[in-house]
Amino acid sequence: MNITRRNFTIGTAALALSACSGADNSAPFAARGDGDLPSDLLPQPNAGYDAWVASFKSRAGGQGISPGILNQAFATTGYLPGVVKRDRNQTEFSRSLEDYLAIAASDERVTKGRAAFARHRNTLAQIEGRYGVPAEVVTAVWGLESFYGERRGNVPVISATSTLAYDGRRGEFFEKQLVAALKILERGDVSVSGLTGSWAGAMGHTQFIPTSYQAFAVDFNGDGKRDIWSEDPTDSLASTAAYLAKSGWKSGQKWGGEVGTAAAGSAAPVSILQPDAGGPRFAVFNNFSAIKRYNNSDNYAIGVGHLSDRIAGGGPIQAQFGPDKYGMTIDDRKALQQRLTARGFDTDGTDGVIGPNSRKAISAYQQSRGMAVTGDPSIELLASLG
Question: Could you tell me if 348 and 237 lie in one domain?
Fold first, then answer.
């Protein structure tokens, strides 16, 4: 299996998207933000884990990890039960492109993206000059991965990767990530306390896993460290551009665009995609494949491409999406969320995406009216809300 930067754990970090939306296997947009960790992501006693760490330490020396780094790295780490829980309970469904774009290219994400682009314009221009990847594309990846740095994750990477290596479901893979993380410490790019990320070990502004960090991260600002964790996103953005460039990005070529618009360009596309039946069609070029090396999902690559177009001043998708399996359009779903919230059944957002919070609100409303409790949206339910 060819493990890309992100498909090792699809959905490692929940969508930092809308509170009314659930996690999406094709969309690891953003890790948990700064702040206190939930109790299940704090170290807890586990004798089996302790024995595994002792065994690992004896093996790690043969991979070039010094005793000093091992002692530092494991001095304050421990078993994180919440990491195992999240790994075993990843949502197994695919979000429609309409729902995906409603979140990935929301008005808020576009507005924040344009502001971030303007704020870092000079740095992004320098990065584009060196790697040939458009500044708006790099910015879009940043937006999808960590909401422009607002949600980079604060779980200790050594604890997360060692817990998953010990758990064994993907033990070999996560032991490789653990070794790579220790080598990052050995090199001195970051301190033990600063080596944080998502619950599955994806790190920094653009969520690199440790092995991808080793392969692609760059010291763009010349301070001697490949620092993707600090408030300054420079090295992260450059590392993303380096990753895309090494993945085959062709300078001067578009990613693609909606069929029938200028964004699609005039050259012959590699293929035409229509992810949602009856919905918009997209002409995609070779650079689309480079984005998919970052995350092997058509929705993700379209999301990055479309968000980059919006950041650069482009408009929304022009073609209409058809009704969903419940016979509802996105405007119907938004109206449903708005009416439920107005009645006291808070969906915690009105983006038209029916996620866990919306379903919880629907169920509560159905129960209050003596209806069959399904949690499913419907035109009839919308009508009953007036």
Answer: no
Q: Which alpha helices (DSSP H) does 192-329 contain, by range?
A: 210-216, 234-246, 286-294, 298-311
Domain count, the chain: 2
**Are residues 235 and 344 both part of a single domain?**
no
Whether 308 is covered by a domain: the verdict is no
| CATH code (residue 231) | 1.10.8.350
pLDDT at 4 over 90: no
CB-based contacts of 272, cutoff 8 Å, min separation 6: 259, 281, 282, 283, 284
**Close Cβ partners of 146 (under 8 Å, ≥ 6 residues apart):** 16, 29, 30, 31, 152, 153, 204, 205, 206, 207
**Whole-angstrom Cα distance, residue 174 to residue 345?**
41
pLDDT tens for 136-158 read 999 999 999 999 999 999 999 99
Give the residue numbers spanning the domain of 348.
330-384
Q: What is the pLDDT of residues 29-76, one digit of tens each?
A: 444 444 689 999 999 999 999 999 999 999 998 888 999 999 999 999
Other CB atoms within 10 A of residue 154 CB? 16
Question: Do 336 and 241 have their domain in common?
Answer: no
Please give the pLDDT value at position 18.
Answer: 27
pLDDT tens-digit series, residues 12-29: 333 333 222 233 333 444
Looking at the domain assignment, is residue 52 inside a domain? yes
